[in-house]
Design goal:
The chain has a domain of 71 residues. The strands form two sheets. It has a four-stranded antiparallel sheet, covered by helices on one side. It has a four-stranded mixed sheet with strand order 5-7-8-6, covered by helices on one side. The chain is built from one helix and eight strands. It starts with a strand and ends in a 10-residue tail after the last helix. The protein is 9% helix and 38% strand.
Amino acid sequence: MYHHYQDKLVELTDAEIRFHHYYFPWGDQSVLLKQIESIEVTPATIMRGRWRIWGTGDFRTWFPLDIKRPARERIFVARLRDSSRRIGFTVEDAAKVEAVLKDLGLLHPVSLD
């Protein structure tokens, strides 16, 4: 399995994304890339989850633990196929992850819904 990107928050391989600290107290969650419809990247704002350290605010988007999220510049939101559930996440090197997701065909324009 080829690792495109890895940091303390996520691992992105050619087959899946593993979100670290997804579950309490420290369980990880893996999502196969084929289960992801699209991933959007937006500026980190209050409405987009900048202060959402862990959990959900809208019962649709779950954020794995990242105590440094308020200082990060970008928020990624993965929309899952055949589900209303989304995963909001941050990474340590947003530019690199944006490039990898674009190369994998997963990065899509931002919607404002």
